[in-house]
Amino acid sequence: MKKKVLATLLAAVLALSLAGCNSSSANDSKVQSGTKESETNGSADAPGDTDAVVETKPFKVTTSMGDSGTTAAVIGANNLRKLAEVAGGEIIFEPTTFSPDAIVAFVENQIAAGVDGIIFIPPADSVLPTITTLCEEAGVYWGIIFRSILDDEIREMVEASPYYVGNCYENEVETGYRVMSNLNDMGMKKVAIISTVKGDTTGDQREEGIARACEEFGMEVVAEARGLAQASDATSAAESFLSAYNDLDCIFVVGTTATGAHEAVVKAIQDAGRSDTVKMATIDFPDTMDALFETGVLVTSSGLPHLFYDPYMTAVKVFNTVMGTPIEDTCFSSSITMFDISSQEQAGAWLKTFGSDDALYYTDEEIRQLLKAYNTDLDAEAFQAIIDNFNPVK
Amino acid sequence: MTADTNVISTDVKESKKPVFSIPDFRKIFPVLGLIAVIAFFQIYTGGKVFTVRNLKAVINEGFFIMIGSVGYVFLLSQGSMDFSIGANMCVSCAAAAMGSAISPVLAIPFGVGTGIIIGALNGFIHVKFKIGALIATLAMQFILNGFVVILLDGGTLQPPLNMLKWNTMTLKITTFLVIVIVGYIVFEYTPYGKRCRAIGSCEEVTKQTGVNYPLMKFIPFVIMGAIAGLLGFFSLIRTGTASSHTGSELMMNVLNAALLGGIPISGGATSKYRAVVIGGLTMAFLTNGMTLMGVGNYDKQLIRGIVFLLAIAISFDRKNMTVIK
Questions:
Q1: For residue range A62-75, what is the model confidence (pLDDT) as tens digits?
Q2: The domains spanning A49-170+307-337+358-388 and A172-303 adopt the same CATH topology
Q3: d(CA A208, CA A214)
Q4: Alpha-carbon gap, residue A72 to A79, rounded angstroms
Q5: By CB count within 10 A, which of B34, B154, B189, B275 is most buried?
């Protein structure tokens, strides 16, 4: 009797599985391409032809970024969705643990899921050769965000791959140096840093700039905390710094993926009663920058025009490539300049643009200027010019 | 009085045997679970599960889980556990990276050797000092997590780039077959395998049979350590990186796989080796299927947690309340 029950179950499952094999994928019909059109917009400058829609092949691009948690993340995600919508594709958010194992598994699984492109943050240069091989074997285009490739051998290997489209990068060394220079101008000498794990290229580069400033201005990094995972880690780190160093001048949040870390550090300083003597500096604008400046603890912050502008522009490169109209035939890097905010007024002006979830980087027409299917004059130089012109606090 | 005393008549009614009892369900639950998982995702994703590309992803996912389960079978059958296997794999990966810096061929002995040493330490602490396996290995996990950060100086290590070419499907499948087959033979057909289950069923009785009880308890930790070390090596050639996050999900995945495969958490005679393959495949298809469906990372953790609870609830032998020895 038991065997009959089991046999019946197995037969039913087999039948259902075969039915599943024959059914068409739901995802194939999810994204509709633009309506049929006869013209494309050929000029990078001319804003005309706003109603022109080019028929494009539906595509799916996935990212290891999340789409929630902070205002910055929501703004970034909304803008990516807008970009994908105009381009006629889909962006999928698959937040992934920031570790080599998790990123490799993420890429493998997304390739298996049938995506056309991948953008992600590499936790270290050393995972890139594996990912290059995976993407080449699968014919999937990819780009990296928030990071540069520092290892020469790995960079050469990655850039030789026809499936790597490139990245956007910031001058991290210069930014680290400039923030320390600002602190030095305020009379600060002893600094504790909260940073990424060693081997993370962004953190390493920023610290290179910090080290240069220390040597030049006679400043000292007295303590460090790395790889914080959550706000409570930031609280613990700040409390440790404050306990150990009575003459501490500043806690510099060089880089962290922990949500709420900045607020936690400010609170720790306030709770210790040392708001007047211990300040905070950051790279990457916190969501609550306005309020943090108001406390008087945050004194300087350096960041991108918007935190998620880097992945946005890398996504533009990937989207163009999977659409069949790459901006350039080979990969290329684009630089995004960071700028400083050192007062509540400046923070207010920035937040006026990026203080709410529905803030957009570009209008639909401006987005079409970023797509070679519409703007056939788009090349690396024009792309860089568009980036250089993007400044919400003009 | 009947002449034929061989004929015995009875008034005893034949007891009615239930068609399907709970112990029977426990036996077929693992197979049913595997079939259900595969069927569900195959149907829901429109047939994406059984594509060549996806099966490669499943093999990559399942490789670490199934090989880890081979070591865990010996531990669980005794009613023991090892919480430090993920941390062991992490340290072994770092050791393998350091060995590869001297010569690539040293990566394997450095990795496996480190894993064996850590496993032996676990076994020694558990057996010699009579500290429960759960506490001893949990403490070891914390120690190793801190140690690896110091070892890596807060960063990462990478092997020579040409070592990444070793990460081939042929090597993985060959390694998998060798380990699984050897494990099967040892667990099912050797006196050692039988004694492991005997310890899980009743420690006192096993002690009274005259076996070398401390050695029996010690060996599974060494086996598990060696396997964690080997997995550290394979992680190194797969990701090209040794970091402090390596192996962070191994423990839960392997434990989940073993339980889903049908090994009771209390161990004992009902521990079956087939749990290695069935449970490992179930976990691999479950994780892969959730990715195909677009389930987020944190939702995956939630689902795995629920599956873990379900597996324990079904597999736990309530007659034997000593869960962990």
A1: 999 988 888 889 99
A2: yes
A3: 10
A4: 11
A5: B275
**Rounded to an integer, what distance in angstroms lies between the CA atom of residue B218 and that of residue B128?**
9
Cβ <8 Å between A97 and B240: no
Asked, for residue B216, whether it belongs to a domain, the answer is yes
Q: Is residue B26 one of the residues assigned to a domain?
A: no
Q: Which domain holds residue B147?
A: 47-315
pTM (whole model) above 0.90: no
Residue of B140, B297, B156 lying closest to B228 (CA atoms): B140
DSSP state of B268: S
- Using an 8 Å Cβ cutoff, are A51 and A41 in contact? no
Q: Which CATH architecture has domain A172-303?
A: 3-Layer(aba) Sandwich (3.40)
CA distance B99 to B184: 31
Mean pLDDT for chain A overall:
86
**A235: how many CB neighbours lie within 10 A of its CB?**
19
- How many whole angstroms separate alpha carbon A224 and alpha carbon A63? 30
**Nearest CB to A19: which of B43, B156, B164?**
B43
3-state SS class at B315? helix
Q: Is residue B290 part of a domain?
A: yes
B39 → closest Cβ in A13, A109, A138: A13
> Looking at the complex, does the CB of residue B87 fall below 8 Å from at least one CB of chain A?
no
What lies within 8 Å, CB to CB, of A136 at 6+ separation is A161, A162, A163
Superfamily of domain A49-170+307-337+358-388: Response regulator (3.40.50.2300)
Closest-CA distance of chain A to residue B166, Å: 11
Distance, CA of A253 to CA of A364 (rounded, Å): 36
From edge to edge, which strands make up the β-sheet containing A141-144? A90-93, A60-63, A117-120, A141-144, A164-170, A332-336
Structurally, chain B folds into a number of domains equal to 1
Pairs of residues, one from chain A and one from chain B, whose beta carbons lie less than 8 Å apart: 158
Residue-wise pLDDT tens for chain B (325 aa)?
Answer: 444 444 444 444 445 555 556 556 667 778 888 888 899 999 988 888 888 888 888 888 889 999 999 999 999 999 899 999 999 999 999 999 999 999 999 999 999 999 999 999 999 999 999 999 999 999 999 999 999 999 998 788 999 999 999 999 999 999 999 999 999 999 999 999 999 999 888 888 888 888 888 999 999 999 999 999 999 999 999 999 999 989 988 998 899 898 888 888 888 888 888 888 898 899 889 888 888 887 877 788 888 888 878 777 776 656 655 555 5
The pairing of strands A298-303 and A339-341 is antiparallel
Whether residue A126 and residue B47 make contact (CB cut-off 8 A), yes or no, is no
How many other C-beta atoms can be found within 10 angstroms of the C-beta atom of residue B152? Answer: 23
The pLDDT, as a whole number, for residue A34 is 33
Q: Is B292 on the interface with A (CB under 8 A)?
A: yes
Residue pair B273/B179 in contact by the 8 Å Cβ criterion: no
Domain boundaries, chain A: 49-170+307-337+358-388, 172-303
Task: Quick: pLDDT tens for A108-117.
Answer: 989 988 999 9
- Compute the distance between CA of residue B190 and CA of residue B184 in angstroms, rounded to an integer: 10
**In a domain? residue B236:** yes
**Of A19, A124, A157, which is closest to B243 when you measure between CB atoms?**
A124
Least confident span in A175-184, A234-243, A383-392, B79-88: A383-392
